[in-house]
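Note to self: user wants both folds in one dump. Writing first protein now.
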Amino acid sequence: MVRRCGQVWIWSRGEELITEGFPEVAAQAGLWPDGTVLDGELLAWDGDAPAPFQRLQRRINRQSPGRKLLAEVPVRFVAYDLLEADGHDLRALPLHRRRQRLEALLAAWPACLSPLLPADSWSALAARRAGSRERGVEGLMLKHRDSAYGSGRTKADGVWWKWKVDPFTVDAVLVYAQAGHGRRAGLYTDYSFAVWNRPPAGPDEAAAVVEAIGRREPPQPGALQLATFAKAYSGLSDDEFQAVDRVIRATTLEKFGPVRSLRPTLVFELGFEGIARSPRHKSGIALRFPRILRWRHDKPLHEADSLASLETLIRRPDPPA
């Protein structure tokens, strides 16, 4: 969040200028002193706490949100760090000094400040981390109090550490594939996955569904079927991608431009950080940051997970007060 020369600019992590999409946040930053630059995060807000990330997705890439959307999905900027004050670059200062100046700034000017979470032992930190999902967050961000603010990827420096909770997992069936990009352009490495709409009665029922898919028969209403719910393109080794590519080419049923529909044969374990309902997906469910954890050579198709498995993971909102 940049406040300079009487103007405000909001830059995304992907170096995109997104100011116009968040007018309420830009208006708030317009009250800050000139020459102020903060690092932080835009969060959809619900009452007195952050809302699930999927709520924010309604605002992302909307250049001119209307009044209705602004009212339905209010967004706040939560400040993490102070990079510039009064036009002076503070990134080389130790974190604890930048934090003191950030707290002083936000005591006088409007913005949300990320809380400090003091702990006197690793076990105390681990206990806080264990309750992350109940607070609607992914874990803890640990920062050395004397650390400077690094530019670019600084994981190797060892002074900041994103200590995430273990991901949610689900065993899913590969149903579509698309060619990759760059050095993977010659391989099918971008995958779409499905789960059963209900648990199969056994291997025979699942096999019958696969045979029907092979005959291009549409699923019957209420019958067992595979529901597409996620895409992922990372997590396998180069050798594994090549092995999966061979299976994809051998089990292709139809081609739709760069996409191939497949006869289901492979099961993979996916990891993801969050899950929510989504009307944009056939399954009615959307995942946050899905990726492949491993190829389940040991798991037959009928033992893949179902929508019921995912339903149990959805974080249901608290009833209104």
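First done. Writing the second protein, which came from a different request thread.
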Amino acid sequence: MRDHIAIVHKDDGGAFGLTFPELPGCFAAANTWDEILKAASEALDLWFEDQPDVQPTPFDEIRNRPDVAAELAAGGTLILVPRHGLFGHF
């Protein structure tokens, strides 16, 4: 599995923000829901340019973390983001 989990939340200004709970400092933004996956994939590619490769954490393990549960309770959504840097882009 090469998918990483992102938390998507809608910012007050109307944009969508994305963070990766297992990848500190890896984040992205998108103006529309349709742009989220592309923005998230690009963020992963950029993050891994300067960071070592890591095996993605299983979905249930991420979902059950207290910090992630708090984000979900505040309206966040979890998505799986394929790491396209290994296979090409959209």
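Dump finished. Worth passing along: Strands lie at 3-10, 16-19, 27-30, 77-82.
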